[in-house]
Design a protein that fits this description.
This protein is mainly α and about 500 residues long. It has 3 domains: about 140 residues, no CATH class; about 150 residues, no CATH class; about 120 residues, Orthogonal Bundle (Helix Hairpins). The chain contains 18 helices and 6 strands. The longest helix has about 45 residues. The protein is flat, with a radius of gyration of 34 Å. It is found in: Membrane. One of its GO terms (molecular function) is metal ion binding. It comes from Lanius ludovicianus (Loggerhead shrike).
């Protein structure tokens, strides 16, 4: 019951009341330390009160709980060394990481916790010491891997075509070699080494990605843009296309260019994932993901309807015409592709003015130009501009969340010998087996003195303001006008009195 009440208090809107009641309930806890403590007992979702405060974005409760956990090591003048307990914050030995919970939640308030002590210092320590070097090395290794795969595709085994053409539009001059003919010369052996590296890399990608999908769940794993959800879809699809190409090569099946071309596009597009390691480029990956899976996906439904309608109309109009003079609409698939190019203004309206054009072509093309070019493309630009404006206001916050997600991902993937645990063990200071992060805080005495003066003046101003308001309310409108005119005409009054007078004037008005 006590643990349930603690979780309920974390969700209370009245933060001050919740903090006091939280301390009151813990004062009756018999097991204040150890696994039996109410603070360390998780709920049905596996969240302790501390983790629940982070997931819900309750910054007041989070700071309150951190103040309870900190230990002042020493103080000398304005310098103070504090030990913060990071047992539940650090993701090193946690199955359900606190940092991963924050960046995966949909509440924006939760990401504000990443800018609070000691979370900000812990993430900065992990990223600067281990995360950034490993991530840059991984990016370089992936680019070299993609260069190797691209060279294997460019120099794939081909031979001249020997068969006759079946159509005047047939332009094929090379065909794919059989398996027995593909690995004969020395150049083929070099390509074989690159192909083996490509296949091994695809298998490693699947081995690293599939356990995370099973642990987190497909919807959450692919749906979070900060966690790189769309990029996970891209890299898994790329690995599958590599394996399909390998099977087609081993079975001498024609048509390997289809999965190979898809793999090339997806593999090189996945390079954008590594832009999150740089503050200048990281927010742009978020913008691209939100535009593609938000604005563009909704716009594609409207675009598909317009293209289908007008492509059908163009095909019917040119169905009776000679395709040698007007070949852009000679069959229905070609009509769809030509209409798509017209929609994006890639080409101009296809027309051969040496022959007579159908009258309906001018009418339909006029309507298509108005609807597609002037209306729908400008609508897409406006939607993307709105998304860019929204993301631009959160770019620093989103980049910090990207850094946290990348750090947690690297910490889970790399061996323990390459990523030691951050912080200091409490046994060095007689604080048990819990881990702490030492942070030096500099306190400016002048700043605190000025804050005390400010609070004193604020209290005096509130008292004078209340007295003036009561006096005005008791004496009526006539006295109010006299006092206000006196306040406005008097040049001997102080800035505080003038400010108070204007506040009285605003309130009574």
């Amino acid at each position: 019951i006590g643990n349930t009440v603690l979780h309920i208090l974390v969700l209370q809107p009245n933060k001050t009341f919740a903090c006091h009641m939280y301390s009151l309930i813990l004062s009756y806890d018999k097991n204040k330390e150890g696994p039996g403590s109410l603070e360390l007992t998780p709920n049905n979702e596996g969240l302790t009160p501390f983790k629940l405060a982070g997931v819900e974005g309750n910054t007041v409760m989070f700071q309150y709980l951190m103040q309870k956990r900190k230990q002042n090591l020493w103080s000398f003048g304005p310098l103070t060394t504090v030990l913060y307990d990071i047992t539940e914050i650090d993701s090193w030995a946690e199955d359900q990481s606190f940092l991963e919970l924050i960046v995966s939640t949909k509440k924006r308030e939760a990401r504000q916790i990443l800018d609070l002590t000691p979370v900000k210092e812990l993430v900065s320590l992990k990223w600067n010491m281990y995360g950034r070097p490993y991530f840059c090395f991984l990016a370089l290794f992936y680019i070299l891997y993609m260069v190797c795969f691209t060279m294997c595709c460019v120099y794939r085994p081909l031979k001249p075509r020997t068969g006759n053409r079946t159509s005047s539009r047939d332009n094929t001059v090379y065909v794919q070699k059989m398996l027995q003919e593909s690995y004969v010369a020395y150049e083929d052996e070099l390509r074989l080494v690159g192909e083996l590296i490509t296949v091994i890399g695809a298998v490693v990608i699947l081995v690293l990605e599939i356990p995370d999908i099973l642990r987190v769940g497909a919807a959450k794993y692919f749906g979070q843009t900060i966690l790189g959800g769309p990029f996970h879809i891209i890299v898994i699809t790329y690995a599958c296309m590599i394996l399909v190409t390998m099977v087609m090569r081993l079975t001498s099946t024609t048509g390997e260019v289809v999965p190979m071309s898809f793999a090339l596009v997806l593999g090189w597009c996945n390079v954008m994932y590594f832009a999150r390691g740089f503050q200048m480029l990281g927010p742009f990956t978020i913008m691209i993901q939100k535009m593609i899976f938000g604005d563009l996906m909704r716009f594609c439904w409207l675009m598909a309807v317009v293209i289908l309608g007008f492509a059908s109309a163009f095909y019917i109009i040119f169905q009776t015409e000679n395709p040698e003079n007007l070949g852009q609409f000679y069959n229905y698939p070609m009509s769809l592709f030509t209409t798509f190019e017209l929609f994006l203004t890639i080409i101009d309206g296809p027309a051969n003015y040496d022959v007579d054009l159908p009258f309906m072509y001018s009418v339909v093309y006029f309507a298509f130009a108005i609807i597609a070019t002037l209306l729908m493309l400008n609508l897409l630009i406006a939607m993307m501009g709105d998304t860019h404006w929204r993301v631009a206001h959160e770019q620093d916050e989103l980049w910090r969340a990207q850094v946290v997600a990348t750090t947690v991902m690297l910490e889970r993937k790399l061996p323990r010998c390459l990523w030691p645990r951050s912080g200091m063990c409490g046994r060095e200071f007689g604080l048990g087996d819990r881990w702490y992060l030492r942070i030096e805080d500099r306190v400016d005495p002048n700043k605190h003195k000025m804050m005390r003066y400010t609070e004193a003046f604020k209290a005096q101003h509130r008292d004078n303001y209340d007295k003036g308001s009561e006096k005005l309310e008791s004496n009526g409108d006539t006295l109010c006008k006299k006092d206000l005119s006196a306040l406005s005409l008097s040049r001997s009054t102080s800035r505080t009195s003038s400010h108070r007078g204007w506040e009285i004037l605003r309130r009574n008005t």
